[in-house]
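Progress narrative, work stream C.
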Amino acid sequence: MLSLQIDADVRLTDLEPWHAEQLAGLFRAHGADFYDWLPWEGFEDVEGARGFIDGFTKGRGEGSRRLYGIWVGDELVGGTLFPSINARSRIAEAGVFLAASARGRGIVTRAVAAMLDWAFTERGLHRVEWRCAPENLASRRVAERLGFTHEGTLREVFPVREERQDLEVWAILSREWSGLPPRRVDA
């Protein structure tokens, strides 16, 4: 199990099936906000949350996906993920969701920086993509702060709540990444 200490209070850990109840609670409390930007729903109950985690656990074993919980102390406040990792082309897509109560403290920027460092230094990836709706200003600011380049907009490609949204595509290459690795704690 991977665990990355982001700072004194914040850490990333692989979400495991036994975290399903906590993930379901997070989606019950904040799902309406998450679903404005994410294509998936139905994780408010433990079974739905466990299915979501199980898909990423299987993908982690195959090297094709990754899901980390964002923890502040003992509270699960969000997640960072690689919904796709293509080892052959050495490209991944990164994403994130975070409770409103944990926003505005730089947690997402630090968490995504830790993911990028893992992707480039440990997995040897060449490129990480970040996709977000043009209206998702917070997500765009994270991409900008971390040095991603805006490459364009895919029009009406992203189905959210039965509506098609545009998606901006941002990317960063391994040679452009200058982040420092977070302190690593293996469990």
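Work stream C, second folded protein:
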Amino acid sequence: MKSKYLYLLALLIGITFACRDDEAIEETTETSEEEVIVDTETYPDWTDATHSKSAELDYATVFNQNEVLRFDIKIDSDDWSDMQSDLSSNLGGNSGRPGQVTTSDFDPIWVPCSFNFNDTEWYHVGVRYKGNSSLSSAYQSGNKKLSFKLDFDEFEDDYPSLKNQRFYGFKQLNLNNNFDDLSLMREKVGADLFREFGLASSQTTFCVIYVDNGSGSQYYGVYTLVEEVDDTVIDTQFTDGSGNLYKPDGDAASFASGSFDESEMEKKTNEDEADYTDVKSLYTIINSSDRTSDIAQWKSNLENIFNVDGFLKWLAANTVIQNWDTYGNMTHNYYLYNDLNTNKLTWIPWDNNEAFQAGKLQGALSFSLNEVSSSWPLISYLIDDEEYKQIYDDYLLQFVNEVFIPSELSDTYTTYYNLIKDYAYAEESGYSFLGSNSSFDSAVETLKSHAQERKDAVTSYLK
């Protein structure tokens, strides 16, 4: 009998230690949908703080302003080959010659990758190419420094135990290649200036990336890490992040009369509901005959659906920094978010790498905006109104007096120059837009001159 009790006791002790061993190799992630058990023997770097959906957004780590982050991306050679075939099929053969673009309106394929940061791995992370001209022009010129988008749970259906994987709380992030920007700073500085002026805008920081596609790790150069608008910007910079978010692209993005097309008002949230009532109302109101027959009613209706003040604030800042590759010249590079706290569509800028220069094609807009036609009614119709025009002018002055201050910008440019210089100098032919180290140096000096020139230009315009 005594031996029987001893046997049972030993069995219970064994079960207890076995349970403890199981706990040592499993980590539980609580989600709103279900409990996810992550096998930390298979995924040893997984922790709740770094990989789980339950983790707090760690802006201090992900958007560290004092360091250049390093990301290492490893892609299976077959998956890499599929990515290249996808580019070739949609953009034409990589001729290594500029100006051979066929089309850039396509959705690049996702493939899984191993993503490493600070000696920690994230598993089966989705990665794809991204961009319009920044993708097609770079690719067609034979430059391998292309932009990427990351989605940390893109392949969760294939790997259910990694469901809702995050990168310090972030689901998606963008690695922008700083196309057509020899200073490598415009994307970051533009986004920061908008946000400092009180506008919703993505957080950014500098990073370098290394890609191993089966042939060893290759340095791809200096990138700008950009926060995804539909992932965290609307959640952290608005009271309620559950409203409709649109990324217009195409003729409908102009809001010109006769242009509305739901298919060009890409929904980034609430897609299944397919409700475009709010953005259709903005189109209807901006083009309403009330504008010429009853201006007070037109303005009241417009202000009930659209954050007019925020748009004029953006327009002023955008005009000062000469960000020409957006509304007013191009039918893309902005978001509209229906802020449920105000029930108004709010403008969110996007893609600033072409800012801080006179511009291409028609060039950057003048301060007067007199050249803007009814093809861009959100600008031309608002600026035609004396009250709105005065608000815009006031924001021009406020922006250069409080945010776009040449001496402070010069210090910022110098700080960033010192931060990224060694990484810029290390960029390699075929993976860089820099022709030489001096081209980087000169571009930074040009930014410093640009700041004072624009401040002087605003002062002259407002006299």
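The chain has two domains: 26-177+202-235, 238-402. No further action is required on this item.
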